[in-house]
Write a structure and sequence with these properties.
There is one protein chain. By secondary structure, the protein is an alpha+beta fold. It has one domain: Aminopeptidase. It is globular, with a radius of gyration of 15 Å. It starts with a strand and ends with a strand.
């Protein structure tokens, strides 16, 4: 299985046996508040979401969200990766972590990895990120990643971007 590593993390594609973790993450308070309810209200629904969302993007675009685990114990702590929602949309960095792993630098470490991957391996010149107006932690992270606020929408979202030459 394709894996990616940083100093403290292992990232791999999300598979059906990750359904319990995806169910827990996608129903955590922060995820529901800032990303939204994806209607994953059972382990079965999580398996269906994994197939229809994560695995579909891997098959169609060879990119997507990856399970982020601690290298020393393989505990799943979040998801991070590169997305492309439709052909006309920009490539986008996305992340979400369980609350007990907030503030430990894991989102930064994994996001930095995927931004470098996008620039070097995918040869992207631009990548974006979307966050809600009230999600200060994600805004701070995107700014720490050297992304600049590009726009604000009427549905309370900020769009950030980075451009490489």
């Amino acid at each position: 299985m394709e894996t990616h590593r940083t100093n403290r993390l292992i990232m791999r594609r999300i598979i059906e046996r990750d359904s319990e973790f995806i169910y827990k993450l996608y129903n955590s308070e922060g995820f529901l508040k800032y990303i939204g309810d994806k209607n994953i209200h059972s382990n079965k629904a999580a398996k269906e979401y994994i197939q229809s969302s994560f695995q579909k993007m891997y098959q169609e675009l060879s990119i997507g969200m990856y399970r982020v685990s601690l290298k020393d114990c393989n505990t799943a702590i979040g998801v991070c990766g590169i997305l492309k929602r439709s052909p006309k949309d920009d490539y986008e960095i996305g992340f979400g972590f369980l609350p007990e792993y907030y503030g430990k630098g894991y989102a930064y470490e994994s996001s930095q990895y995927w931004l470098n991957f996008a620039r070097i391996n995918l040869n992207l010149k631009r990548i974006t990120a979307i966050t809600s107006h009230d999600n200060r932690a994600s805004q701070s992270l995107l700014e720490k990643l050297k992304m600049k606020k590009e726009s604000s929408s009427s549905n309370n979202l900020y769009k950030y971007k980075t451009i490489w030459k």
